[in-house]
Amino acid sequence: MPATNTLLTINMITAKALAILHQKCNFIGAINRQYDDSFANSGAKIGSTLRIRLPVQYTTSTTPALSLQNTVETSVSLPITNQYHVDFSFSSAELTLSIDEFSARYIEPAIAQLAASIEAATINMMWPAVWNQVGTAASPMAFKTVLQARKLLLDNLTPQSKQWLLRINTQDNVDLVDSLKGLFQSSTQIARQYTDGVMGLSGGFEWAENTHLSTQTRGAESATYLAAPAAQTGSTLAVTTGTGAGIAGDVFTIAGVYRVHPETKVNTGVLQQFVLTAAYTGGAGNMAIAPAIVTSGPNQNVSNSPNGTTSTLTFMNTASVATGLSLAFHPDAFTFATADLVMPGGVDMASRVVKDGISMRAVRQYSISDDTFPIRIDVLWGAVPLRPQLAVRLVAN
Length: 397
Hints:
alpha+beta, hypothetical protein PF0899 fold, seven-stranded mixed β-sheet, 5 helices, elongated
């Protein structure tokens, strides 16, 4: 009796591919993931946009008199602007492989590349939006820096309903494990530092290494930039004097402009950190910054505006020098979204699968010229900093 061949269906291929993609992304897999099923029937195209609501903020009244205030909802627009895909081909004979064999030979290497590309692009879109920073650029990563990051998240009232996360570059992991080796004891968690070379769960964070986090290089800003005129608010900062171009992601403080408690609005005595949200050509002009300077109301974040005379800018790290970069964050600091792509007609097979908020489409066609089946696997995605105040950069050597 002849053997029965089991042919691979496109659904089997798609499901296996998505499982591998999900497994390989320890940053995307950890952050907020939005899946928009409104495109399930018609399919989305590049440029489709999601709108995500942010929490409403209010102020507290301290007198018996009624003090009504408006409810103002804000949102973040998340454009789905990236269509990444991986394409390969296999023969009709190879359709008789088991799904595990097919996965090992074709899907695994293809999706590893796709996952790495999406993960790296997402990280490089997110970290430049983070204005909170701790650490010393010229020193090895220390455990105290991790605790300082935790303190900063607590000071920003980061919710503790979800596990906080720490994604560190490989050099930071080396330095941290080495610095803590003298604390060895027989518990399973500490022992993993020696058996696996990783930290695991420690300091209030779930740790993982990520090779896409490596370094950041500050721009060439001088120490003579001055925020002027006085009484500025908003996300544009006018500066006079000073030289040197800035890079999106450069962190700085403004003399005399302090962070306030997010709820009570009491001056903390700690300078508020800001970040350039766009490249700056240098000299007098207008810098695009985050967070926006807000001096009153429910969204107040600083004690006062720059005074225009002594409000000098101090940029973190060393000009034009690469600095090690790691990230501590709450999952809702960032969001990653996918949408269902259009299902094409007139092809051999097409399938879509959604797993944990990630949608993937696979399309297979037949090539009569060489008896092969070209296949493409696509992810239509976008990412945006949702609440960047819930993240902290950790810098080291």
